[in-house]
Structures are given as C-alpha cells and as structure tokens.
Amino acid sequence: MKKWLKMVLLVLAVDLFFYLVSSYIPPEKLAEEKPEVQVIRTKEQAAVFLLNRFPAGELKEFARKYKSGIPQEREEVKALLKRKMTEEEYKAIVNVLQEEQKKSMRD
C-alpha cells in the first residue's frame, strides 16, 4: 500500500476514533440495523474503496489538511467524506481505521 494512503488512513483514524466514541450506539440499536451492502473489513478493502470513491489527488489533499492539525480543516475533511459515503460505509471505514490504529499501537 502506498505510504501516503497509509498516512491518510492512520491520520483519519485518530479523529474518527473520537467521533465514534462520542457517538456510542447501544447494542440493541445495532441489532436493528440492516447489514452493510459493501463489506469493508480490512485496510486493503478500505484502500480500494477510497481509491474508487475519491481521486488520488483528493485523498492527498485530505491527508495534507488532516496533518495540518487545524480543527476546521479536519472537520472539512470529515464533512467531505460523509457527503460522498453512506453512513454505513463511513462507519465501516472508521472501524477499519480503529483496528489499524490498535494494531500499530501494539507493534
């Protein structure tokens, strides 16, 4: 996987992790939700999904804005991602990012 794409995934992981923690969904509610149409369970699937959904230049721009650390730019990136993804796709990407972040902290 390209280094810049790994960086995009890792950088988004931190902020998206806090988003998920702040928007806890009780297990009962999760059981009511329909299964996802597109399965995204690995970083490779997430990378393919993102590359199919966004041009490489746009992903690089997302990474640049996210690395800047400016809260407004990070929020802008999250808003753009949410506009071009379903809620289920967004959650799936976030879950993959969380798992990758956990793995990188263990290593």
Q: Overall mean pLDDT score?
A: 78
Major β-sheet annotation? none
**Alpha-beta classification:** mainly alpha
Low-confidence residue ranges: none
Overall geometric form:
globular
Measured between the Cα atoms of the first and last residue, the distance is 18 Å
Structure description:
There is one protein chain. This protein has 107 residues and is mainly alpha-helical. It has one domain (3-106). 78% of the residues lie in helices and 0% in strands. It is built from six helices and no strands. α1 packs across α4 (56-68), α1 (3-22) crosses α6 and α4 runs antiparallel to α5 (71-83). It is globular and about 30 Å long. The mean pLDDT is 78.
Please outline what is shown here:
The chain is mainly α and 107 residues long.
State the main characteristics.
mainly alpha, globular, single chain, 0% strand
SSE inventory with pairings:
Blueprint (H helix, E strand, L loop, with lengths): L2 H20 L4 H6 L10 H11 L2 H13 L2 H13 L3 H20 L1
Helix pairs in contact: 1-4, 1-6, 4-5
